[in-house]
Amino acid sequence: MSKAAIIGGGVIGGGWAARFLLNGWDVAVFDPDSQAERKIGEVLTNARRALPALYDRALPPEGRLTFHADLADAAAGADWVQESVPETLSLKHRILPAIQQAAGPEAVIGSSTSGFKPSELNASGTRAIVAHPFNPVYLLPLVELVGDPATCAKAADILRAIGMYPLVVRKEIDAHIADRLLEAVWREALWLVKDGIATTAEIDESIRMGFGIRWAQMGLFETYRIAGGEAGMAHFMAQFGPALSWPWTKLTDVPDFNDDLVDLIASQSDIQSGHLSIRDLERLRDDNVVGIIRALRRMGSGAGGVVRAHEETLADIGERDGLPVTATRQVPISWTDYNGHMNEAHYLEAASLATDRFMEMIGADAAYVASGRSYFTVENHIRYLDEIHAGDRLTITTQVLAGKGKRLHLFHRLWRGDDALAATVETMLIHTDLSTRRSSEPEGAVSESLSGWVASHAGLEAEGAGRFVGQPATGPT
Ligand SMILES: NC(=O)C1=CN([C@@H]2O[C@H](COP(=O)(O)OP(=O)(O)OC[C@H]3O[C@@H](n4cnc5c(N)ncnc54)[C@H](O)[C@@H]3O)[C@@H](O)[C@H]2O)C=CC1
Ligand SMILES: C[N+](C)(C)CC(=O)CC(=O)[O-]
Prior knowledge:
By secondary structure, the protein is of the alpha/beta class. The chain has helices at about 10-20, 35-50, 70-75, 90-100, 120, 150-160, 180-195, 200-220, 220-225, 230-240, 260-275, 280-300, 300-310, 345-360, 365-370, 445-455; strands at about 5, 25-30, 65-70, 80-85, 110, 130-135, 140-145, 165-170, 320, 325-330, 375-385, 395-400, 405-415, 420-435, 440. It has an eight-stranded mixed β-sheet with strand order 3-2-1-4-5-6-7-8, sandwiched between helices. Bound molecules: 1,4-dihydronicotinamide adenine dinucleotide and ligand L46V6VHR. 1,4-dihydronicotinamide adenine dinucleotide binds near residues 8 and 12.
């Protein structure tokens, strides 16, 4: 089992703890704040409802979370130690040597710093790299890595394995890449409020109703390429380049950062969002971010591509009761309904994932479909045997009842947790020629594979298969 130590468990440390933990790592936290355990517990509750909802396969079983009164205890034996104390250089200069002394020589030591360069952090001879994440760390994939190339390469592999996107910053610079961009927008926004041009709420609308949506899927330069029309980027540059010397920006100036400005921004922000608690806002943000990333998954764009690639590494593992496990998944809150349990439609969605996986297992995979052959579902019968709730882990097994010629008859069992049979879904499929849209015989290798499955499942009972709607129950229900 891999272990991460989180030194400083505030907004960002809590997010790191959740990211590692929900990807199966043990996590040890050191934070002198007496409220740290409560705060991290609340962040974890939110992370548990959000992160698994990005995936169509179950994440690994959660690791173990421990809290330590001593930094050295937390860091001992860790594969990764993440420093996330406040953004004060003198504090980081105290903490990093203590981490280095306690951690093994192989451990990656990462700093969450938003702006300090590795050469500043390591002024006293420590070996930390910058591993700068984005809030919420458990959902957003980006981590900027800056520092020793070999350590960054090792760190990048670890981050990919927990579903993150490492971006190696090739040259150290204050505030790395993304925070330089964010800082530019932040400064301009402060000017707009200070000058009475716009309120905090109006500025947020200008982002979320327009360019914020564009940025999530294509970033800046691809977006501007399209904005150049058929003539492309060169035309865009020619058209908007001169604006750079017009008074479109105040970025060369910084507004006085005094109490008046802080009060102005804070009071507008209270009017805008003060009716919601931070945890309410986090849940709202998380549900929206999950929805956006799930939309991006379809085309593999941006953060959606990262989730898809990570999901490929989450194996649907093994066998259960002599049958192949064809799907695992954690139930997202969005699958539940007004009755407080998983809605009927999603029983079929889960079974459909299992059918797709079984098709891959018999060779009717993406290449086979691209060659013009596939299976079409022609009938389903679902038995709802037990309730399923948000966060439950589903394991689906698939039994082949018949698989000769054009017809493929499957019997899926949906297990909730370890031992509750929550549903069965009986599915009939017909092999189809995609060019004529008519039934056809499967190709030899698919047919042979199916014969093997039929033989190995022959004689296994399939209680409930063949039932029709309204048929009286034959035994206890
Ligand atoms: N908040 C944000 O949006 C982001 C912050 N960061 C960076 O992450 C780091 C942490 O920032 P936040 O989590 O926002 O701050 P925070 O104030 O929420 O959390 C800092 C935590 O460090 C703890 N702490 C203070 N002294 C400590 C010590 N001596 N040993 C161990 N823990 C100690 C505090 O009790 C607190 O829980 C900073 O370097 C910041 O620049 C990075 C990305 C985004
Ligand atoms: C405001 N901030 C500089 C702390 C922001 C970051 O560092 C990254 C983020 O999550 O926006």
